[in-house]
Design goal:
The complex is a heterodimer of chains A (297) and B (223). Chain A has 297 residues and is mostly helical. Chain A contains 13 helices and 1 strand. In chain A, helix 5 runs antiparallel to helix 6 (129-140) and helix 10 (198-212) runs parallel beside helix 12 (256-269). A 6-stranded mixed β-sheet of chain B has the order 3-2-4-5-6-7. Chain B has a 4-stranded antiparallel β-sheet with strand order 9-10-8-11, with helices on both faces. In chain B, a hairpin with a 6-residue loop joins strand 4 and strand 5 (116-124). Chain B has helices at residues 3-6, 16-33, 46-51, 57-65, 78-84, 157-167, 198-206; strands spanning 10-12, 39-45, 88-94, 102-109, 116-124, 127-133, 136-140, 145-152, 172-179, 185-192, 210-216. Chain B is built from 7 helices and 11 strands. Classes of the chains: A mainly alpha (297), B alpha+beta (223).
């Protein structure tokens, strides 16, 4: 069957329906065709671009772990580096791989705060989640870069639906839209990477987003540092747990589209003081106020 | 939206709106000005003024003006690099509720020549637009090849340019024109489907009544 000139979607349900209508074998094929049709860029070029993004993600992990990262504000003082040393000592509470994943998520998020080069996924503030989770799990399970790139397209597709129905921006819907979306995208991509059915991909993404609904954006001193960096670790851990549940066959009772709509509704109800303005929440705690005053640019 | 708007851009952190978008505005301004310069005055408004300093907005803007793309690792050192290149840079910070939250006005100057002002807004996700050139309202983000003309408002100038482009099969997708007053300084921004070759640029630059003609290449993707 010849593909239409443009592919339009508004919902996850549209993806599943059109995948069947267009006889596209899986989610990756669908999102690749979607992107190629809508941007008029060849599939080969798009795949190459995603490989490039994967390379930058790997570089950002390496750079972020090279030495202790410090921001000018002093709010970040080498957390990723300390975490790496802790992992190497074998003192982890959980598996060594879980600990390694945490150090990688920290590495990318800290590098971003230090004006290093990262891939916004879906935003700069949430850029640690996806590389940390996907690259670590792919290594553990011997997945190739081709498989990783395919799962990144699926992650991007999930993010696209969130962007179309709600928003990916903390200033519009709070942190649930940034780290929440990164977590949902990663959870879905993990399930895809491990060979899960589209319905399992949907469940994983829906679980991950449900768990983070309502999370506000309240950065201390208006910087993408505190609590953003550690919220990335939370998003990554949540993605793993949700992917695990979905792969076990636990289904979501609320479809992903409805979870996204709930996020948008909550985001609209959220006061402006809790949407990236640093006028509420942690940002106005006495310690945060003290930190803000003591930062010298 | 596109999947690469979700996964991407590749950028220098920490903020897609306050760092990557700012770098894009700086680079667009450089491409539009298109000449050497040794003085830049940058006025940041609203959120750019409030949280810009914590997000490297000044470094990103100056980096763009120096020709760095939003993923260039020289951005964190842009202010020092500008100083080394002998470019004087100063900043002011203002509030103006009438303006977009992330608004910046850049005044570029070479020695005692007339200052050139250009304003831009950062609209999220590393996307940005130029909204003003020398107090003329414009709107472009670099999706098309651009032709920007400053000329003396004259009957037939638009026809001349349109005819020249048509004869060379260059299609005009969008066009904006504005002027100070009848027969005074006018500005035209043409969004084109293909770039204007150097030979045509020479014809335009030599045409009586055209003060400046600049071709701004389409915004280059990171790959």
């Amino acid at each position: 069957m010849t593909l239409p000139k443009r592919i339009r979607i508004k919902a996850w349900a549209d993806v599943i329906k059109q995948m069947k209508d267009l006889a596209l074998p899986d989610l990756y094929d669908f999102f690749l065709s979607y992107e190629a049709k809508n941007t008029e860029i060849s599939e080969a070029k798009l795949i190459g671009k995603m490989h490039h993004h994967l390379t930058i993600m790997r570089e950002s992990i390496e750079r972020g772990l090279q030495e202790p990262n410090r921001t000018k504000s002093g709010l970040i003082k080498g957390g990723a580096f300390h975490m790496k040393q802790f992992t190497q000592k074998g003192a982890s509470l959980l598996s060594k791989n879980f600990s390694l994943m945490i150090s990688r998520v920290l590495a990318v998020s800290e590098l971003n705060a230090c004006m290093g080069r990262i891939v916004a996924a879906p935003t700069a503030g949430a850029c640690g989640v996806m590389p940390g989770v996907l690259i670590t799990i792919a290594e553990n399970h011997g997945k190739t870069d081709e498989e990783l790139v395919k799962s990144l397209f699926v992650a991007g597709g999930i993010g696209e639906i969130i962007a179309l129905r709600a928003s990916l921006s903390g200033s519009t819907h709070g942190c649930q839209a940034e780290v929440g979306s990164a977590s949902a995208m990663s959870a879905g991509a993990l399930v895809y990477l491990m060979g899960g059915e589209p319905s399992m991909v949907e469940s994983a993404a829906a679980f991950a987003l449900k768990n983070i609904l309502g999370l506000v954006c309240d950065p201390v001193a208006g910087r993408v540092e505190l609590p953003c960096v550690k919220r990335n670790v939370m998003g990554a851990s949540n993605a793993l747990a949700c992917a695990e549940m979905a792969l076990a066959g636990i289904p979501t009772l609320i479809p992903l589209d409805e979870v996204i709509d709930a996020m948008a509704q909550i985001g609209n109800l959220m006061p402006c003081s809790l949407k990236e303005t640093s006028m509420g929440g942690l940002a106005v705690s006495p310690s945060a106020q003290y930190i803000k005053k003591s930062i010298v640019l | 939206m596109s999947i690469f708007d979700v996964i991407g851009p590749v950028m220098i952190g920490p903020s897609s709106s306050h760092t990557a978008g700012a770098a894009k505005i700086g680079l667009l301004a450089r491409n539009v000005y298109h000449q050497p310069f040794n003085k830049v005055s940058i006025c940041l408004y609203n959120s750019f003024a409030d949280t810009g300093p914590g997000h490297g907005t000044q470094h990103a803007l100056v980096g763009g003006l120096l020709g760095f793309s939003m993923d260039d690792e020289r951005i964190p050192n842009a202010l020092e690099i500008a100083k080394k290149e002998g470019i004087e840079v100063n900043f002011t910070f203002l509030e103006d509720p009438e303006k977009h939250p992330n608004y910046v006005t850049i005044t570029i100057q070479q020695h005692q020549q007339n200052p050139f002002t250009i304003s831009g807004i950062s609209i999220g996700g590393g996307h940005a637009k130029i909204v003003d050139i020398n107090h003329n309202k414009v709107e472009f983000s670099g999706k098309h090849d651009l032709l920007i003309l400053e000329y003396r408002d004259t009957c037939g100038m638009v026809a001349f340019v349109g005819d020249l482009l048509a004869k060379n099969t260059i299609n005009i997708a969008y066009m904006q024109i504005s002027r100070d007053a009848i027969e005074e300084r006018a500005l035209a921004v043409l969004k084109l489907d293909t770039p204007v070759p150097e030979t045509l640029m020479e014809i335009l630059k030599n045409k009586e009544g055209i003060y400046t003609a600049v071709a701004v290449p389409r915004w280059k993707e990171d790959i």
